[in-house]
Amino acid sequence: GDWILFTHEGGVDVGDVDAKAEKLLIPVNLKNYPSNDEIAAALLSKIPQGLHNVLVDFITRLYAVYVDCQFTYLEINPLVVIPNAAKTSAAVHFLDLAAKLDQTAEFECGTKWAIARSPAALGTPKTPNTDGRVTIDAGPPMEFPAPFGRELSKEEKFIADMDAKTGASLKLTVLTPTAASGPSSPAAAPPSYTPTPSPLPASSPTWPTTASTPAPPPRRRRSTTPARFWT
């Protein structure tokens, strides 16, 4: 399941969150999702009663987005709650947020991630369309950094693009793009082939032979192209 942690302290000097935070485990089977009262009892024991409904609604909606968009981690710090004068409701503001997405879910969530980055969602002006084409109000696709900070090769980008469009796992890593094979390396030399005689059927023609000249084996075509391997 997923753990929801809620701490009543925030900011840079929050300290050991795991030790201070109230915790609630959300089961994998969402039929057993906790009720509003269970969420409030587990996470909001130090919050005034009048603010429970607002915060429970915020936590529930936030978790729904977390699941729907395939997040693997989401942290809001600080979360600012400004109650009204009667302390019966409040305005909720998140000032900073850090999150991680599951890259393997791009084939089913890529459109959702792009919509979340659209000009309308970000509050930025949309560039007018002047060529008459119909466009979708969506932002740029999510780009994940290459492993270890290196740039992907053309072949790796091609496979990564295929991987993003299918539920299958397609991976390619070119370890030595400038490597060359030659006779100096036995392991890198192209495989050789030595023909071996095979018995002829009874109805096949035979070659004239002598005691010192054995019959030649059937000729086979030998490939001159070395084997290639992608790694």
Notes on the protein architecture:
The protein has a domain at 2-101: ATP-grasp fold, B domain (D-amino Acid Aminotransferase, Chain A, domain 1). Helix content is 23%, strand content 13%. The chain has helices at residues 17-20, 36-43, 52-68, 106-116, 119-122, 154-163, and strands at 2-6, 22-26, 71-76, 79-83, 90-94, 97-101. The strands form three sheets. Strands 1-2 form a two-stranded antiparallel sheet. The protein has a two-stranded antiparallel sheet with strand order 3-6. A two-stranded antiparallel sheet has the order 4-5. Strand 4 and strand 5 form a beta hairpin. The longest helix is centred in the first third of the chain and has 17 residues, at 52-68. InterPro entries: Citrate_synth_N, Succinyl-CoA_synth-like. Pfam families: Citrate_synth_N. It comes from Emergomyces africanus.
Report the CATH topology name of the domain at 2-101: D-amino Acid Aminotransferase, Chain A, domain 1
Work out the helix count.
6
| Total beta strands | 6
CATH superfamily of the domain at 2-101: ATP-grasp fold, B domain
Q: Taking Cα atoms only, what radius of gyration do you get, to the nearest Å?
A: 32 Å
User: Helix amount, in percent?
Assistant: 10-25%
Strand numbers in spatial order across the main sheet: 1-2
CATH architecture of the domain at 2-101: 2-Layer Sandwich
Shape: globular
Q: How do the SSEs run, as a string of H and E?
A: EHEHHEEEEHHH
Low-confidence parts, pLDDT < 50 over ≥5 residues? Answer: 209-213, 216-231
What does the largest sheet look like? 2 strands, antiparallel
Biased composition (Pro residues): 188-202
Domain ATP-citrate synthase ATP-grasp: 2-113
Biased composition (Low complexity): 203-213
Region (Disordered): 121-140, 179-231
